[in-house]
Structure formats: C-alpha cells, structure tokens
Amino acid sequence: MLQPALGTARTPPGEGEAALAVAGAAFRRRIAMFFLTFALTLNFVDRQIVNILAEPIREELQLADWQIGLMSGLAFALLYSVAGIPLARWADRGNRPKIMAFSVLVWSGFTIACSLARSFPQLLVGRVGVGIGEAGLTPAANSLIVDYYPPERRASALSLYYLGVPLGTLAGMALGGLVADAYGWRTAFLVAGIPGVVLAPFLLLVLREPRKAHAALLRTAPPGALAAVKTLWAVRTYRLIVIATALQAAVGYGFGPFIASFFIRNHGPEIVAMATQAGMGVSGFLGLTLGLSTGLAGAAGVWLGGLLADRFGRSDVRAYVTIPAFASLAALPCYAVIFSIDSGALALAGLALPNMLGAMWMGPVHSTQQSVSPPEIRGGATALFLLVLNLVGVGLGPLFVGTASDAISWQFDQDSGRSLRAALILTSLVAPFSAFLFWRARSSIGRDMTRWKAVNPV
Fold this sequence. Notes:
With about 450 residues, this protein is mainly α. The chain has one domain: MFS general substrate transporter like domains (Growth Hormone, Chain: A). Helix content is about 80%, strand content about 0%. It has 22 helices and no strands. The chain has helices at about 15-60, 65-95, 95-115, 120-135, 135-150, 150-160, 165-185, 185-205, 215-220, 225-235, 235-255, 260-265, 270-275, 280-315, 320-340, 345-350, 350-360, 360-370, 380-405, 415-430, 430-440, 445-450. Mean pLDDT is about 80; it is low at about 1-25, about 215-220 and about 455-458. InterPro entries: MFS, MFS_dom, MFS_spinster-like, MFS_trans_sf.
C-alpha cells in the first residue's frame, strides 16, 4: 500500500483546504495592501510636490507668501474636506475599489492640469481639483483595511498603508526638485500626474469589496450625515483625538510649503555650496535631501508608531494615545533648535528626528478612530476626521505660517528669511496642546473601544 506523503498522514479531512483558504486570504490582503499603499504614495506625491516647487512658482508668478500658503494649504484642504463627506457616504454604501479608482483618475488629471497654469487663479483651481480627487481615497481605504484585519492588527496594517505618506513626500520632493531643475516646475507636475492614470485600472482588478460577505452590514443602513456626525462626536475618545491630530497637523503641514524656502532664505550660500559640490541645482538638492529626511524618517516613525501601539496595546489600549502624546511633545524642542541654529547642514540633518516623531501618530490614531466608530459609518468617521484635520492642519497651518511671516517682516527690516524663521518657531508652540489632548483620551479609550464588535469579513 502506498504511504501518505510526508506531513499529510495526520491531517484531518478538510484541514488542508482550510489552511489553503487562510493562506489565500492572507496573500490577497498583502496584495491589496501593496496597491493601497502605492495609491496613497501617489496621493502624497501629487499633494506634496508643490512644496518643493513653491519658490520657483512664487518667482515666476510673482506671488506673496500668503498666496503660497493659500494655494498649498487652504485651497487644497477646503475642497478636500468638503468633498470628503459625500465621498465617504458613498464609501459607506458603495463599492470602495471603484470609488478609489475614480478618485485616483480625478486627482491625477488635475495634477497634470497644474502644469498648464499661467496665473495664480488657474493654479489655484488645479490644486482645488487635486483636493477633490484625493478626498475619495482614504475614507474608503481605511474602512476597507479595517474590514480586512482584526482589532489587534489594525494599527500595524494601517501603519503599512500610511507609509504612503512619507514615501510619497519623499518621492514628491525629490522628483519635483530634480525634474524642476532639469525641465522646470510645469514638467514636474506633468510627471507626477501620469502614474495615477496607470494605477487606477489596477485598483479595480486587484481589490475586493468584502461588504457583500458580511450580512450584518447589509442589514444595517448607514444613518444620515447629521446623525452620523452626532454619533461620532459623542464618542469622547474620537472627539479628543480628532482635535489633537488637527493641531499636530497644523505644525507638520504648516511647515511643509515653507521648509525649502526657509533654507534658501536663511542658509542660501551654504545650500548653494552644498548643491554645487553635489553637482545639482538648489531645488534638486533640497528636494532630495528634504525628501529623504521626510520620507525615510517619516516612514520609520509611521512603522514604529504602529508597531509600538499594537505591541503595548495588547495589554493596555491606552498605548494607542500615549505614544502620539509623547511623540508630539518631544518634537517641540527639536524644531526650536533646528530653526535657530546657524548651520544649514546641521539643520538639514536635524530635521530627521522631528520628522520621525511627527509621523508616529498615524497608525495608532487611525486605528483608534476606526475602532471606536460604528462599523456602518467608518467611512464617515474617516471623512469627519479628515475634515477637521485638513481644515485646521492642511488648510490653516500653511496660511498661518505665510500670513505670520508677511505680518511680522517689518520687525526684521523686511528680511523675509528672519520673519519666516520666527513664524515657524511660533507655529511649533502648538505641539504641547496636541500632546495634552492625546493624553486626556487615555481615560476613555478603553470604554470606547469595547462598544463595537470586530468586523472582519475577509
């Protein structure tokens, strides 16, 4: 008689098929996470590329700092936030892969349109269009990932997705600077927009909508928009982390459009010398160095924040807000030193630490805001979260920095470098308020996380 193959003699009937099914689901999740992370990476390439292009755009179109802040911040964030509400409602009811594919096409098209702008209003319209398109990705992606993974793995899974933020920032800054040096800022927008047009069909082919497999969600219709907002805002943990993250974002995103300008205005000769030594132009050199600092250090922060939150959160769920609190507070003295020292090289190198600390909130906070939200409005929970974060952080942060720089320049004899330095230091003082609110959420997170049962149809 033939003997069973090695390793199969003791396998009960059906167990092998079950193991294969589990392995297949895990493989599908990995593929899905790759494409979702790549989509968010392109999202931030198109969103952040304007930061490294701010100075050449300002010079060609003769713009003031407040206009740079409006274009890169409020104009983008306002429509991003407003469009996010109906798109999130769509995500709570509709096919999320289709929504994401459509969104990628829209924002990529408007990024390409920015390359054709010949005036500030035209560029403003292009950035508004990018904001509308990008609003459809993350609410759908967040709720899809939460459907894919159990609660104890969500922070790590969402951290993997949010690696797209620093990676996209790295690619956007480096690509934008290098292409702008070689071919101009218009070509940089064109090159940034094309990959999204290619990606969109792959999202339709690869991603699965698991909602049909979960009968409870089908039987529970999402509440109206106003009722959903009231439900979410009544959850204390959700409310606190939304406000805390918005303040945190006001610092990080407020700095974004002005970091390259800060180094050009305050450390110009030193930056030119370093760029020349590297055989590069100033925009390319700063794009590459700032991109590497933001991208690599930010990626480390995103990964570390999710890893620590899931590891310590198994025994104490307060870790999901404690880690962002400490990280936010620790970044403050780093910024104060970086914006004050006389060495441009040390300031460039020193940015890595606050960039890492500033990214550690992403996995823990997004995991928390999804876990404390009812399953049928998780897309809406992300949209409301992003509405506040983007209006305060992305919208008002850059506008505040730019307006403050213009307003106090008279105190520095119209020296735009010194006034921008002061505006950046002033903005960094918001960080302790963010840390305080994260810390306050420790008292309610345990209760709020037990309200909803896990939903994992995949």
